[in-house]
Specification:
Length: 404
């Protein structure tokens, strides 16, 4: 790629690039010296089950790898015990060593679905902070002012409302900045909510004598399936990369046509010109939005599973929703013949989170038995041996129950 083509790839799906001209300069210098850039992104091991919202940043790391650079997946095992307060209105509780180690292993198992292991350094910031003494932290604390740290919106709001701000939270941005010193980072990637931390890292690098501080690039926070709030497991509007191909495919197909273009931009490697061509084809009627959404779903499934599984998920979706057939591989369970309320059965088999949730699903028309919608929350099953039923909850959950 030419430098202009490299910049187009790297700037796609990003928000900030500070300082703007540094990206070209760093890429040109790397090309002339044949020295790969060191590209850092930090992750606190607090929520290791990655969803596709997290992969917006990880995909940008992969773009740097594809251009021959080295990416550093930094697991903040030390700073995780401090807790990143970004965007929070209260102090985040500290994690235990055991929680951090378990989460870190889960991260490592997932990131190589996108990243090249040969061009990825996995590092832990306890490597250098475990050697820090009290004097080192005091010197680090002298690299910034309290006024600078309070510029962050979350701290500013808490300060103005007289909500508590712990000193260890103020140290987090400084510690993250020192990570860039220890790793000799040329570029740091992060979400837009991390921008002030990333800028602080440039200042910390300069304070420690690094003449060419890191370039910072931020990626947007991806909207969830509802198209409104950012993707979050706690909000239930997420697509987990470890979910089954069928589940991922079905969730992508559930998004709005408008949100589809946002996902094309942030969750695929298509260029903006290619995406613009697809959008134009949809607007002229040359391509149906439903088919374009299915193409998007296949791409996303293939990223985290395989092309074959993506095609199977697509065919399964068509069977289920176009031909109104049940899936071919419905999970099966056997139960002793005895009358049981459907609500209790749904809760015990994990098709509903509780009996109350099962009642709500039935009342909303979201439960079917053998293809027929259930209207009565008092419905019972299993009164006779040999009875068999295929239960469907929502659009993607199925269970075959055999009573013996």
């Amino acid at each position: 790629m030419t430098i202009d083509e490299q910049i187009a790839l790297l700037r796609k799906g990003t928000v900030d690039c500070v300082p703007e001209g540094d990206l070209r300069r760093k890429l040109e210098h790397s090309s002339k010296t044949a020295k790969p850039l060191r590209v850092k992104a930090g992750f606190d091991p607090t929520a290791p089950d990655i969803h596709v919202g997290h992969t917006v940043l990880i995909r940008k790391m992969r773009h740097f790898q594809q251009l021959g650079h080295t990416v550093i997946f930094l697991i903040g095992d030390f700073t995780g015990m401090i807790g990143d307060p970004s965007g929070r209105s209260v102090t985040r509780p500290a994690l235990t060593r055991e929680q951090i180690d378990e989460s870190a292993e889960t991260y490592k198992q997932q990131i190589f679905k996108l990243l090249d292991p040969d061009r990825t350094e996995i590092r832990f910031n306890n490597e250098w902070f475990s050697k820090f003494g009290a004097d080192d932290f005091v010197r680090l604390a002298g690299r910034a002012t309290v006024a600078q740290l309070l510029e962050r919106d979350d701290f500013k709001k808490r300060f103005q409302s007289q909500a508590p701000i712990s000193l260890h939270e103020l140290l987090y941005a400084l510690a993250q900045g020192y990570d860039s010193v220890a790793l000799e980072a040329d570029v740091e990637l992060g979400g837009t909510d991390q921008k002030l931390n990333l800028l602080m890292a440039r200042q910390i690098q300069q304070a420690y004598g690094i003449k060419e501080p890191q370039l910072i690039m931020t990626t947007p926070l991806l909207e969830g399936l509802d198209g409104v709030q950012k993707m979050s497991k706690s909000l239930g509007n997420y697509i987990g990369i470890s979910e089954t191909p069928r589940e991922i495919f079905g969730k992508v197909m559930s998004i709005s046509d408008e949100l589809m273009w946002r996902y094309y931009e942030l969750l695929t490697d298509l260029s903006m010109n290619e995406i613009a061509e697809l959008k134009a084809a949809a607007e002229t009627g040359e391509r149906h939005p439903r088919d374009l959404k299915a193409e998007l779903a296949r791409r996303i499934v293939a990223d985290f599973h395989s092309d074959r599984e993506a095609e199977e998920a697509s065919n399964e979706f068509d069977r289920l929703f176009r031909e109104r057939q049940a899936p071919a591989d419905i999970p099966k369970t056997e139960r002793p013949a005895a009358a049981i309320k459907l609500t209790k059965l749904l809760a015990s088999e994990g098709l509903a989170s509780s009996v109350a949730d099962a009642q709500r699903l039935i009342a909303q028309g979201g439960v079917r038995i053998n293809g027929e919608r259930v209207a009565d929350v008092k419905t019972e099953l299993g009164s006779q041996a040999g009875e068999e039923a295929v239960i469907q909850v929502g659009s993607r959950k199925f269970l075959r129950v055999v009573f013996k």
